[in-house]
Amino acid sequence: MMRYVYILAALLAAACSRNPVLREASALLENAPDSALTLLETLPREELSGEAEKAEYDYLSGTAFYKTYYFLDDSHAAALASAYHSRELRRNRISNVALLISAILATLVLYFWARNLQIQKQLLEEKEAGEKLLSTAEDLRSRLGALQMRQLKQASPGPMADIQMLDRLCEQYYVYEGTQNLQPRILSEVRSIVDGLRSDPAEQRRLEDSLNRAYDNVMVRLREAFPAWKEEDYLLYMFTASGFSSTTISTLLGKDKPYVYNRVYRLKERIKNSSAEGREQLLAALER
To answer: What is the pLDDT of residue 288?
Structure first.
C-alpha cells in the first residue's frame, strides 16, 4: 500500500516541478508572444530536466515564433512536430496508466466480491454443519434413550453413558441458546460422541451390546450368519437397527444419504437372498 502512496507522491511532485521560465512564457504566449519568445531564448533547452519540460519548451517556442512572425522556419516546425509527438506519447502513457489503474481496481473489486461470497458460503456451510450436528444429537438422544428404556423393561440395563451426555447437551442448548457460547460448547461435545461412534471400537461395542440386550442378540446372530461381512456393513446394520435417521447415519459414516440408502438396500437384499436362520428377524430389525 505504501508503495502506491510513494508513487503518487512522486507523480504529484513531478507535476508541481514545472520550470518557472516555462510557466511565465506560457502566461505571455497569447497576448505577448514576442516577449514569450525572447524569454524562452534566455533558457537553454539542454538545461531542462526531463522530456516533458523539453516538449513544453518546443511547443511554446514554436507557437510563440508562429504568433510573432506568422510563419514557421524549419527548426521551429521540427520543434512543434516533436512537441506534438511527445504529447501524444505522454497521452498514450497516461491512458495506459489509467487502464492499468482501472484494471487493478476492477481486480480488487472482483477479489473482495469473491472473498465476500466465499466467507458467506463458509458461514452458511458452518451453520448447516452445526444444524446437522444438533439434529444428529437429538436423534442419537432419542434412539439411544429408546434402547435404554427397552433394556430396562427387559431387566437388562447396560452402560449407556452417551444418553447422559446427550441429555446434558440438550440442557446446555436451552441454557446457552442465542449466545456465542452455544455453538462451541454444544458442537464440540456432539463431535466427540459422533467421532466415538464413528471410529472408536469401544464405543461401537457398547452400542452393539446395548442392541443385543434390547433385541435378543440381533448382532450376535447377524455376525454368525454373515461372518464374511466387512466391519462397515456391521456398523451400517447396527446404526439402522438402532433406529438412527438417514441424516445421523450419513454423519456417523461420513457418507451422503444416497450412499446410505443404497447400502441399506443392498444389505436387505443380501439377507433376503441368503439361507441364514432367522433372516426374517434380521430383516425386521432394519425396518424399525
So the answer is: 64
One-letter amino acid for residue 124 of the chain: L
Express each pLDDT in 58-100 by its tens digit. Answer: 888 888 888 888 887 888 888 788 877 777 777 777 777 777 7
Question: Does residue 125 contact residue 109 with C-beta atoms inside 8 Å?
Answer: no
Instruction: Return the DSSP state at 164.
Output: H
Question: What does the alpha-carbon distance between residue 115 and residue 111 come to, in Å, rounded to a whole number?
Answer: 6
**Which amino acid makes up residue 17?**
S
Taking all residues of the chain, what is their mean pLDDT, rounded to a whole number? 76
Reported as a single tens digit per residue, the pLDDT across 165-188 is 555 555 555 555 556 665 566 667
Q: Rounded distance, CA 266 to CA 262, Å?
A: 6
Residue 148: which residues within 8 A CB-CB, separation 6 or more? 157, 158, 160, 163, 210
In degrees rounded to 5, what are phi and psi of residue 242?
-75, -10
182-199 vs 201-214: helix axis angle to the nearest 10? 80
208/235 Cα distance (integer angstroms): 9
Q: Quote the CA–CA distance of 197 and 207 in Å, as a whole number.
A: 8
First to last CA, the chain: 64
